[in-house]
Amino acid sequence: MDRQPGLSIRLKLTFSYAAFVMVAGALLLAAVWVFLLRYVPEVIRLPEGFPIPRGPNVPNRSDLVRAFVPRAGVVLAFLLVFGLVGGWLLAGGMLAPLTRITHATRLAANGSLSHRIQLEGQQDEFRELADAFDTMLARLEAHVAEQQRFAANASHELRTPLAITQALLDVARNDPNRDTGELIQRLQFVNTRAIDLTEAMLLLSRADQRSFTPEHVDLSLIAEEATETLLPLAEKRGLTIETSGEIAHAIGSHALLLQMTTNLVHNAIVHNLPEHGAVWVATSVHPGTVVLTVENTGEQLSQHVVSTLVEPFQRGTKRIRTDHAGVGLGLAIIKSITQAHDGTLTLTPRPDGGLRVTVHLPAAPCDPVMGKSKYVSG
Description:
Oligomer: single chain
Number of helices: 8
Distance between the termini: 65 Å
Strand order of the largest sheet: 6-7-5-4-2-8
Structural class: alpha+beta
Number of strands: 8
Largest sheet: 6 strands, mixed
């Protein structure tokens, strides 16, 4: 934005300090005049025995005024110079942190997010501003790095189905006698996977932008709905699902929280034992928070592997391609939805194998009386 040039803050503070000193000096001189000179008589009477001057040399109030006013002017002039010089130095010292903050802001505006102000000294308003700015820069740097990494991964993931489609079309063009039914089936599979990936990326973007209308939701009902939806998949794989817990009221988007829970349960089903596996879904209420917990049996996972699962396009230790492998954005979407609801996501490997995922969300105010909700299937 173009603005007309004006006085700097340092100059304005200098003038303010100088004006304040001048006003204070003028008030002091006025006090001298009011409380001292007003009591001086028109003609000063000297004590007996003191030589009395004759003629025009007899001192009176006018003589004192003539002697006071020039010196008062000299004092005011000195106070003006003192106020300007002192104000300039004081303003410079006070505004030095602001200069560093402005320099860091310009660097950030030019794309450098690694710079930090790191203002020294005790806590005050400037240091609070500098610390807040450093925190903002750190978050921006992490966010930009995450977006760049996500864009690179997304480009790679989207390029794969497009490359496969191009290869299939080239084969069909070079071999007119090839079975078109098989080609169409494979193209449909690749296209479906590309659509799923695109929709997952849009959902992730929607969660990051918090573009939803908050409403009262019950996590226990959402857990039952997600479980019932995925029950056929669990039965097909020979798994048992148990859903239990308390009525857990939160504030948020029913659609996003349902998507989050569905992704959690889907992951728990897909990444499980080949047979005789189990999934446990539970809700609970704690002071100020409601908790959704999804556990499953499965292979042993290290803490290092678990810590990378929330990264986009990560699928555990192997990049498995099956009919239910997903697009690698499940836990990334869950993390974004959780953060959009001001919650926290915790992943913990189970000692016996498998994973425990815990989602903490702020509880809705004025929760109704808690009840129990049981649903067991197998």
